[in-house]
C-alpha cells in the first residue's frame, strides 16, 4: 500500500494495465531475473561499488529493524508488508518538513473502504518542501527551438513564487480555493503552481492544445477563482493565437474573479479583445514588488490530506471525472520515485517532454525536491527539427531524459546515431512511459543515445499521480521490460477469473 495521493484512498484497478495506456503483460518483481550468460550484458548492469540513496535507505532499514534484505526483491516485500513504517522512515530519510503531531502513520486495522487517514494531524507545505535548492543553482532552464536557453535560479524562483503568492492573497485567494492553469509547460506555469500551493490553494491545469469544450468540461467542476493563461503559443514554428478559445473559456467560467495573462511571446497584448477584459491582468503587473512581500514569507501549513492537485480521467465514457490528490501523499510518493528509485541529486538535470495536461507534468515539478534543475521545452518534439530534444539535452548537459515511448519509436525509425552527433555523455537515466517501450527502442537508446544508460520504462497512472513500476539502479536493464515494482507498491496481476496472472494482459490491483 502506498501513501494516499488520492482523496478516495482506493486501491487501483485498471483493465489491461495502467492508466498510462500500457497494455503490455504485467511482470512482477518476482519475474525479474538477472541476464543469463551475458545475454543482456551490453545494457546497464549494477556495478559492484553501487551506493545509491536506495541502498543507503535500505541499510538504515536493516539496522533499525534488525533485518537482512539481500536484494531489491526482499526490500520490496518488506516495504509492502511494513508499509506504515516504510513511509514514515522515508519521511525522515528524505528530510521532508512535516509539522504538527501525529500519533500513528495509519490505522492498519481499518479497511480501505473505511478511508483510514495517513499522518493524521501532521501538516506541511508542498512548495516549501520543494524549494530546497541552493540560491545560485539553476532551478529551471527554459529551452526553445533555436536551442537558446533562459535560466532561473532557485533564488529567482523563490522570489517570483512569493510575489505571485502575495498577489493571490491580496486577491482574496485562501486555503481551499482552486486556481487553474491553461498554460504551456513554461517557467511561469511552475511559478503559478508553486505559488498556489504556497498559500494552500489547489492547482488544476489543462494543456493549451485542448479545445475550449475540453477545458470547460474540466474546469467547470472545480470552480476556479483565478485562471493563469497565455495569449498565444508556438508549435512547429507557427504562432497560434488563443484569444477566441480563451474568450469561450472565460465566458463558461462565471466563478473566475481574475485572469492572469502571461505575455509569453513578448508581443503587444490588446486586453480589449478579451471578454470581461476588466478581469484581465498582465502576469508581470500582477506580481507584487519584492519589497511588499513579508520576510519571512508565510507558507501555509495544510493537513497531510489537504487537496493539492485536481487531475481528470480521460473522458472516454463521458465528462472527465475529477481525481483529487493530497498534499502529503503526492509529495511522499514523488519523493520516493525521484530520490529512491531515481537516485536524483542536486547535480542532476531533467528534461521530460510533457504538456500540463499529463500527470507527468506534476511528477516532473516535484523533481525540484531533490535540488536539481528542470529543463523545459514546450514546442514540437519532431517538427521542424526532429533532433531538437537531443540537441537540448546535450546543450544543457542533462543527466535525465524522458518522453513518451512513441517518441523513442520515432527515433528508432530515424536510425540516427545521436551519440556521434551530440554530446550526451552526461545522461545516466532515460525515462519512457505512456505505452510499452519496445525492445527495439531499448536497443536503439543503448546503441545510439547513451551506452549502458539506465533505461527506466515506468508505468503508472493519473489515478495515483505516480508509478506502480519502473526502474532501479540496483537491477539490470532487460529490453522490453519494466525493471521492478516500486517500493511500497503492493501490486498483483489477476486474470478475469481472479487468478494470479503472468505474461498476459491482466488486471492489476
From TrEMBL:
Going by the entry's taxonomy, the superkingdom of the source organism is recorded as: Eukaryota
Chain intervals for the UniProt region annotation (Disordered)? 1-25
Q: Any idea where the Acetyl-coenzyme A synthetase N-terminal domain is?
A: 72-130
- Domain (AMP-dependent synthetase/ligase) spans 135-497
GO molecular function list: acetoacetate-CoA ligase activity
Q: Where is the composition biased (Polar residues)?
A: 14-25
Q: Which family does it belong to?
A: Belongs to the ATP-dependent AMP-binding enzyme family.
Its protein name is Acetoacetate--CoA ligase
Q: Give the organism the record lists.
A: Diploscapter pachys
Its ancestry begins with:
Eukaryota, Metazoa, Ecdysozoa, Nematoda, Chromadorea
Amino acid at each position: 500500500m502506498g501513501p494516499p495521493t488520492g482523496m478516495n484512498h482506493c486501491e487501483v484497478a485498471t483493465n489491461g494495465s495502467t492508466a498510462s495506456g500500457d497494455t503490455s503483460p504485467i511482470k512482477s518483481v518476482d519475474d525479474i531475473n538477472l541476464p543469463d550468460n551475458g545475454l543482456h550484458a551490453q545494457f546497464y548492469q549494477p556495478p559492484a561499488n553501487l551506493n545509491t540513496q536506495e541502498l543507503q535507505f535500505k541499510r538504515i532499514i536493516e539496522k533499525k529493524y534488525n533485518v537482512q534484505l539481500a536484494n531489491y526483491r526482499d526490500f520490496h516485500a518488506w516495504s509492502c508488508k511494513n508499509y506504515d513504517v516504510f513511509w514514515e522512515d522515508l519521511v525522515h530519510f528524505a528530510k521532508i518538513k512535516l509539522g504538527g503531531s501525529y500519533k500513528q502513520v495509519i490505522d492498519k486495522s481499518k479497511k480501505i473502504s473505511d478511508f483510514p487517514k495517513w499522518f493524521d494531524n501532521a501538516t506541511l507545505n508542498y512548495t516549501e518542501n520543494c524549494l530546497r535548492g541552493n540560491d545560485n543553482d539553476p532551478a529551471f532552464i527554459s529551452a526553445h527551438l533555436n536551442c537558446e536557453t533562459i535560466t532561473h535560479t532557485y533564488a529567482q524562483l523563490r522570489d517570483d513564487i512569493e510575489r505571485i503568492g502575495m498577489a493571490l492573497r491580496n486577491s482574496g485567494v485562501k486555503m481551499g480555493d482552486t486556481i487553474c492553469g491553461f498554460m504551456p509547460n513554461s517557467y511561469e506555469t511552475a511559478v503559478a503552481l508553486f505559488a498556489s500551493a504556497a498559500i494552500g490553494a489547489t492547482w488544476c491545469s489543462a494543456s493549451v492544445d485542448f479545445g475550449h469544450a475540453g477545458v470547460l468540461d474540466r474546469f467547470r467542476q472545480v470552480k476556479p477563482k483565478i485562471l493563469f493563461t497565455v495569449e498565444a503559443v508556438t508549435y512547429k514554428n507557427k504562432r497560434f493565437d488563443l484569444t477566441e478559445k480563451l474568450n469561450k473559456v472565460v465566458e463558461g467560467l462565471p466563478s473566475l474573479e481574475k485572469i492572469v495573462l502571461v505575455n509569453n511571446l513578448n508581443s503587444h497584448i490588446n486586453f480589449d479583445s478579451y471578454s470581461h477584459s476588466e478581469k484581465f491582468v498582465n502576469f508581470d503587473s500582477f506580481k507584487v514588488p519584492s519589497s511588499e512581500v513579508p520576510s519571512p514569507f508565510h507558507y501555509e501549513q495544510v493537513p497531510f490530506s489537504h487537496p493539492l492537485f485536481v487531475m481528470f480521467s480521460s473522458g472516454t465514457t463521458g465528462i472527465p471525472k475529477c481525481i483529487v490528490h493530497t498534499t502529503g501523499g503526492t509529495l511522499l510518493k514523488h519523493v520516493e520515485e525521484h530520490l529512491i528509485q531515481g537516485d536524483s541529486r542536486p547535480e542532476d538535470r531533467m528534461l521530460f517532454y510533457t504538456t500540463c495536461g499529463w500527470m507527468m507534468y506534476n511528477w516532473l515539478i516535484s523533481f525540484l525536491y531533490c535540488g536539481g534543475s528542470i529543463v523545459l521545452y514546450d514546442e514540437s518534439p519532431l517538427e521542424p527539427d526532429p533532433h531538437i530534444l537531443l540537441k537540448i539535452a546535450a546543450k544543457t548537459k542533462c543527466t535525465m531524459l524522458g518522453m513518451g515511448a512513441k517518441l523513442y519509436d520515432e527515433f528508432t525509425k530515424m536510425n540516427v546515431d545521436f551519440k556521434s552527433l551530440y554530446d550526451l555523455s552526461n545522461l545516466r537515466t532515460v525515462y519512457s512511459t505512456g505505452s510499452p517501450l519496445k525492445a527495439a527502442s531499448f536497443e536503439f537508446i543503448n546503441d545510439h543515445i547513451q551506452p549502458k544508460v539506465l533505461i527506466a520504462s515506468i508505468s503508472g497512472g493519473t489515478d495515483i499521480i505516480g508509478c506502480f513500476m519502473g526502474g532501479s539502479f540496483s537491477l539490470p536493464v532487460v529490453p522490453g521490460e519494466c525493471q521492478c515494482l516500486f517500493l511500497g507498491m503492493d501490486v498483483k496481476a489477476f486474470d478475469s477469473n481472479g487468478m494470479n496472472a503472468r505474461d498476459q494482459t491482466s488486471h492489476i490491483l
